[in-house]
Structures are given as structure tokens and as C-alpha cells.
Amino acid sequence: MGPGRMLFDFIAECLGKFCTEHNVDKNTEIPLGFTFSFPLIQQGLDRGILKVWTKGFICSGVVGQDVVQLLDEAIQRRNENKIRIVAIINDTVGTLMACAFYKCNCRIGLIVGTGTNACYVEKTQNAEMFDANHKRTQGDKEHMIINCEWGAFGDNGVIDFLRTPFDKQVDEGGHNPGHQIYEKCISGLYLGELVRLILVDLMQKGAIFANQEAYSIQEKGKFKTRFVSEVEADVPGTFDYTDFVLNEIGIRNAIDEDKACLRYICQAVSTRAAQLTACGLVCLINKMDVKDVAIAIDGSVYRHHPRFHDMLYITMKKLLQKDIEFQLILSEDGSGRGALIAAAATNSKMN
Q1: Which of 2, 43, 87, 173 has its Cβ near the most Cβ atoms within 10 Å?
Q2: Is there a single domain that holds both residue 78 and residue 100?
Q3: Do 292 and 255 share a structural domain?
Q4: pLDDT tens digits, one per residue of 3-50
Q5: Residues 6 or more apart from 347 whose CB is under 8 A from it?
Q6: Running DSSP on this structure, what letter comes out for residue 69?
Q7: Beta partners for 110?
Q8: Whether residue 8 is found in the same domain as residue 134
Q9: pTM of the model
């Protein structure tokens, strides 16, 4: 929430520490791939203008600026290493590239973590939004990667039919009301808060945890998204993790019936998130019109929620035509490895 300059100075400091720890020659120029997981107007492989902050970031002096230039200036201010930023990518693109490096049918990159977004491989001839300076020519590559920024799906009201009063409370109580509507139904920044708002409503009505004060649950953000995963990790009929979560939010000596209700609420919120994610993926697969596709996935919700992978797979299986094969693949450190591949490929082409 501070000045943008401080953010980029921090990144440059981390780069400097890394170079020192690994004894990088200060006289050797290092090509850098930069993963920046926010909506950009990408004007080149190494030029991206921040359109809007998401996921709770509100650093000043960055929106409308070239983030590559801001990081480069921060690196220059330290004047420690010769680092040249050769490519800027989105984390979904990095996730796709990291997986496609060894899985040639990987055509979709998905993030389900603090936020959510996806990218996919499209025929260049179908890319309709090139401006006059970037017209397609016969020499263009046949395919390109499109960053969907699908977290903003629904900003125009098209999914209002599935939003609940709790969704609207989450939206109105955030930094960017009216924006990232799809993301607010799916991602880790919001799932715990959705559960908390439902709990508060039911407790006020006396429908759950009767006679429990639990003042902390009234505070925004007190029911963390990891609590959703922990509650659902309990073996049916047991409440070991649930007891731990309840203790964290100040509810003690709860009856098993109420604990089961809490699990049901968590399941309802997470199941909807997985199903909505599946809907987006199915749309992309149908758009590409392919019969065999691997989907590279990264992000804390996908990694740590005990049922998210299975719910995603089951829903996609229901919605896709039966002759379409797909695989859901965890992309290990997609942001880092994808940026590495982008930098290596770009540097190789330059040389």
C-alpha cells in the first residue's frame, strides 16, 4: 500500500541479494525475465503498462506506467549488477510455458491462488485486438498466447444472476468495487471472507453456534481461506481440523451438528469456485477447438485445497464433449520457470 517506488526498490534489493549469494559476476550482463501478475497493456516483449492493481495492491505511482522501466530504474539506483530485463510476462503465461517446455500439448495456463486468471494458445489470425501498429502479416507466427485477464469477467453484469448478497458484500468492502467479479467468486483472497460473512449472518439469526459470542468473527478477514481447506480436510465424521479452526476464531465447545454445518458452508463456497473455474476452462477448450489439451495450473488454492483438483476435473468432464481428452497438471513454480524460459528464448534470439 506504499509508494510504487518502494515496491520496485524491494524487488531490486532481492535481485541484488540473490546475485551476491550466488557469486554472480558484477561485470556480466544478466538477462532477466519479469513475471508481473497484474493487468497490463503489453506494448512489446519488454514493455508493459499497468492498467489497474488487483488482489489488494494499491501502490501509488504505478498505474499507467511501464513497470519494466520502473524496475529497471530501481536496479540502476542500486548500481550493483548489470541486469537487463528482456521479457515481461503474466504468471499464467509463465505457468503455461513452464509446463509446455516438456508437455507439447499444453495450451492453457491457469492460476487459482490469491487471484485467478488464465491464458491460452490462440491462432494468430483470430487475435482481433491488434492496433494499427501491430497488424498481422504473412510472416507472423501461426499461434500466440492470449492473456485472458478472466478475473474481470462479470464486471459488466453478465454473471450477476449467480451472485449472492455475500458476494456483493465482499465486492463492496474491497479496494476495487465493481471490478474482478469472477475472481471474487473463485480466488483465495475472497473465499474465506465469503464463508465468514455467511457464518456471521447465520449466527445473527441463531441458526448456528448459538450462545457463542465469538467477537473475532465479526472482524473482516478473520476467517482465512486456509481455514476452508483445513475444515474440508477432516475425514467425514471427525472434526479435528475443524476444532482447531473454531479455536482460532474464538468458538469453543461447539456441538458436532454445528461443525458439520460449517463444513457444509465451506464445501458450498469451494465447490462453486471449482465449478466456475471449470466453466472458464471448458469455454477456452471449446474456443480452441482441440481434442487433446494439457492445462498447466499453479496457485495456493489449487495446491492446498483437498478437493479442488477433483471438483475441477469432475465438472469439466461433465461439460466437455466426450471425445475431448484433457489433463490437469501442476506447474511447479510456473511464474519463475516461465520467466526463465521467456528470458532464455528472448536472449538467444537477440544473440
Answers
A1: 87
A2: no
A3: yes
A4: 989 999 999 999 989 988 988 888 888 889 998 888 888 888 888 899
A5: 31, 86
A6: H
A7: 118, 297
A8: no
A9: 0.86
Greatest alpha-carbon span in the chain: 72
Q: How far is CA 289 from the centre of its chain?
A: 25
Alpha-carbon distance of 38 to 57, in angstroms, equals: 10
State the angle between helix axes of 240-248 and 256-288 in degrees (0 to 180), rounded to the nearest 10.
100
Closest CA to 277 of 302, 305, 294: 302
Q: Which amino acid is at 95?
A: T
Q: Which of 66, 280, 279, 302 is nearest to 191 (CA)?
A: 302
Question: Are residues 157 and 16 part of one domain?
Answer: no
Instruction: Please confirm, yes or no, whether 258 is among the known catalytic residues.
Output: no
Q: Quick check: is 285 in a domain?
A: yes
Catalytic-role residue among 46, 66, 91, 298: 91
Per annotation, catalytic residue among 55, 184, 222, 259: 55
pLDDT in tens, 194-242: 999 999 999 999 899 987 777 778 889 999 999 999 999 999 889 999 9
Using CA of residue 96, residue 99, residue 100, residue 103, what is the dihedral sign? negative
CA atoms of 285 and 349, how far apart (whole Å): 31
H-assigned helices in 64-154: 67-78, 91-100
In total, the chain counts a number of residues equal to: 351
Residue 243's Cβ-side half-sphere holds a number of Cα atoms within 13 Å equal to 8
Contacts of 257 (CB under 8 A, 6+ apart): none
Strand partners, 325: 292
Q: State the total domains in the chain.
A: 2
Q: Give residue 138's pLDDT band: very low, low, confident or very high (50, 70, 90).
A: very low
Active site residue 55: yes
Decide if 121 contacts 86 (C-beta within 8 A).
no
Dist. CA 97–CA 110, nearest whole Å = 11
Query: Domain span at residue 81?
Result: 1-89
Single-letter residue type at 11: I
**DSSP-assigned letters across all residues of 286-337:** HHHT-SEEEEEEESHHHHH-SSHHHHHHHHHHHHS-TT-EEEEEE-TTHHHH
What is the grid cell recorded at 68?
519494466
Neighbouring residues of 115: CB distance < 8 A, sequence distance ≥ 6: 37, 54, 55, 151, 180, 183, 187, 188, 189
